[in-house]
Amino acid sequence: MIKVVVAGFTGEMGQNTVKMVQNTSDFELVGVFAPSAKGKSAADYDLPETTSVYGELQSIDCEADVWIDFTLPDFVYENVKYAIKQGMRPVVGTTGLTAEQITDLNQLIQAKGLGGLIAPNFGMSAVLLMKFAKEAAAYFPDAEIIEMHHPNKKDAPSGTAIKTAEMISQVRHPHTQGAEQEKETLPGSRGGDYEGMKIHSVRLPGYVAHEQVLFGAPGEALTIRQDSFDRQSFMTGVRLAVKEVMNLTELTVGLENIL
Ligand SMILES: NC(=O)C1=CN([C@@H]2O[C@H](COP(=O)(O)OP(=O)(O)OC[C@H]3O[C@@H](n4cnc5c(N)ncnc54)[C@H](OP(=O)(O)O)[C@@H]3O)[C@@H](O)[C@H]2O)C=CC1
Ligand SMILES: O=C(O)C1=N[C@H](C(=O)O)C[C@H](O)C1
């Protein structure tokens, strides 16, 4: 049995994750955490009595193997640091960790003899999109990224869009796209800039999580697109990560590294 704590269990991803853990025969949900759960009990959330409900990070005292984090960019670092200190292996889907924070967490993980996994996207279609985009960028160095999400998303651009830009940047020379004297008459209209590559964020009702990478070259174009129509699309990856993190000996970034 792998004992699991779900942080952010009241959120969209947290709710799906709780169900996935409960429906996986070799996982046990030993704890859940969200600030709005302060003072509440397992019965308030239709959870079994054996699941401890926490509303404060510092009060989490259950013994667990894995900490799954789907919280918010501002809190993920402190959460994961606390979990590692308690001896848990983090599986992190929350966006927003900086490179310095990842380095810190990796040092902590190795000092404790643990492993961990951070994945900007647990969906197979997104993992493949990033892989194909990196391959295409060797031949089509001019690209723009458009990510489209539900209107409740708190961060922009998405973690997946940043990771896609990073992967494309590994195979192309940094260069600015568009005219040299380009002037925005409406600020922001050219999107965010990642080493000269533009990233555009769309937030619309009806959307869940989607990304398109547009490549252009003289006389031709290539578009790569992925769609997560339902958050269920992330759960196969999260389940796999919980199993595989038990064998990792460092903080690995990217689901592709355990597939
Ligand atoms: N890697 C991947 O594949 C995916 C990653 N994500 C990422 O996961 C994260 C969560 O997304 P989503 O579920 O849609 O977000 P929601 O806004 O639906 O949920 C956020 C959760 O975080 C909790 N929370 C709020 N404040 C704190 C705090 N101080 N400490 C700990 N937890 C807190 C909320 O609890 P409360 O009830 O108390 O407010 C809630 O449970 C985002 O960063 C998103 O980008 C999303 C989808 C897929
Ligand atoms: O907030 C979301 O919904 C998602 N967040 C992740 C991201 O920022 O890339 C993954 C996916 O896009 C869904």
Helix content: 25-40%
Please, what is the CATH homologous superfamily of the largest domain? NAD(P)-binding Rossmann-like Domain
- What is bound: which ligands? NADPH dihydro-nicotinamide-adenine-dinucleotide phosphate, the ligand O=C(O)C1=N[C@H](C(=O)O)C[C@H](O)C1
Radius of gyration: 20 Å
Mean model confidence by pLDDT: 97
* SS strand fraction: 25-35%
CATH architecture of the largest domain: 3-Layer(aba) Sandwich
Gross morphology is elongated
Organism: Holzapfeliella floricola DSM 23037 = JCM 16512
Domain Dihydrodipicolinate reductase N-terminal: 2-122
Subcellular location: Cytoplasm
GO cellular component, one term: cytosol
Describe, in plain words, how this protein is organized in 3D.
The protein has 259 residues and is α/β, with parallel strands linked by helices. The chain folds into two domains: 144 residues, NAD(P)-binding Rossmann-like Domain (Rossmann fold), CATH 3.40.50; 105 residues, Dihydrodipicolinate Reductase, domain 2. The chain is built from six helices and twelve strands. Strands 3-2-1-4-5-6-12 form a seven-stranded parallel β-sheet, sandwiched between helices. A five-stranded mixed β-sheet has the order 8-9-7-10-11, with helices on one face. Strand 4, helix 2 and strand 5 form a beta-alpha-beta unit. Helix 2 packs parallel to helix 3 and helix 4 packs parallel to helix 5. It is elongated and about 65 Å long. 36% of the residues are buried. The mean pLDDT is 97. The structure holds NADPH dihydro-nicotinamide-adenine-dinucleotide phosphate (NDP) and ligand LZUJQKHR. NADPH dihydro-nicotinamide-adenine-dinucleotide phosphate binds next to helix 1. Homotetramer. Pathway: Amino-acid biosynthesis; L-lysine biosynthesis via DAP pathway; (S)-tetrahydrodipicolinate from L-aspartate: step 4/4. Keywords: Amino-acid biosynthesis, Cytoplasm, Diaminopimelate biosynthesis, Lysine biosynthesis, NAD, NADP, Oxidoreductase. It is an enzyme of class 1 (oxidoreductase). Catalyzes the conversion of 4-hydroxy-tetrahydrodipicolinate (HTPA) to tetrahydrodipicolinate.
